[in-house]
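hey can u check if this looks right to u? its 444 residues, i copy pasted from the old doc so theres a chance i mangled smth
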Amino acid sequence: MVYKDLWIEDEKIMGVTEAGAGGEADQTIDAKGLIILPGGIDVHTHFNIDVGVRSVDDFMTGTRAAAFGGNTMIVDHMGFGPTGCSLHHQWEVYKGYTEGQCITDYSLHGVLQHVNAEILEEMKQMTEEGISSFKAYLTYDHKLSDDAILQVLETLKAVGGIMPVHCENDAVIRYKREKFLAEGHTEARYHPLSRPGYCEEEAVDRMITLSETVDGGPLYIVHVSAGESVERIRAAKKKGDFVYGETCPQYLVLDDHYYEDDDEGLKYILSPPLRKKQDQEKIWEGLRDGTLSVVATDHCSFDFHGDKQKGKVDFTKCPNGAPGVETRIPILFSEGVSAGRLDLQTFVQVISTNPARLFGMYPQKGVIAPGSDADLVFIDPEMEVTITHDILHENVDHTPYEGFKVKGWPVQTMIRGQVVVKDGELQVQPGFGRFIRRKSVQRI
């Protein structure tokens, strides 16, 4: 292990020197035996979202959990507002949710419910105001048509933004769900069968085609779960297309056998659903070869002994989502770096540097370099922990990773030079986190 001195002043990194070569400091932190990395950036959370029922992690509990998990910033996906509302409507709602609440730094993705001239103009305005990404859905009540997607991609290409998109074929999902319910197949095990891998792959393929139609529409495919999708993204990137892929820890370490228990299976109703082990291997390979650029979480938490039970007699009534913002870094470090699947450089890229570049925060965030924010995570690479619900700081009543044994654990988190988590204790108050104005996407 190589030891260096890292110098911080007025929230910023001032320099990196050989150990002992930089002079005297007002305060020192001895980090021998630890790995110091740029703080984690989770660019896919859903805090305080209302999907008919409200998720149990708000921006205080969600960013608290994020900080304990080694994250220094999150970018949250705003939920849908009233039909026909403006983009700014939801931003104003979320300003109320976040004000004085966040532990980590934060930003928001705009959410697209419909597209017309006014919405396109708002996208330009909001990009100037610090929000440069706008999410589209290809399923759910506010799904966008292909012609609307083309307009969005053209606008974002012009203003330097990017479009995260939830890729699933809505018609396939509706057909299969209705068929299963008509046949009396209501158990949790039918959730993954109602949203097969080809349902995702078709939508990914279609979005890449639309991106190519506008000669490089900036496309970011969220929560890639299917091996077929990885292959399609790989082919597009080899052609030089403006397309990036994100996956999540659940698709790397959990598989569809968790649905076999009709009661416990409700914990794992999320969309896209958990896939098969062969999909996991393709996703790991996609991270190693750069096909997939980011590991985020899609953190969307509902209590198992609460609203998740709405799916007990009908899986389609179960709110979709699972927690994970606190466990992302330790799971990926353990199963990736410690297990030899990923090198340390790739790990840093997918948890921090690439999210910062793609969503307009680099080099303020995502890198240890002079002038960058002093956002750091200190990882003990030898620390072994068994993940259980009672050691976590999320507000939800379970973790999908109960009993997972990991090697490598974040033991300290620093945001803008301030120690935020140390020795298992929170060191700051809600409201410490700042809204970060994001800029244009940087291709990687």
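The CA atoms of residues 60 and 350 lie 25 Å apart.
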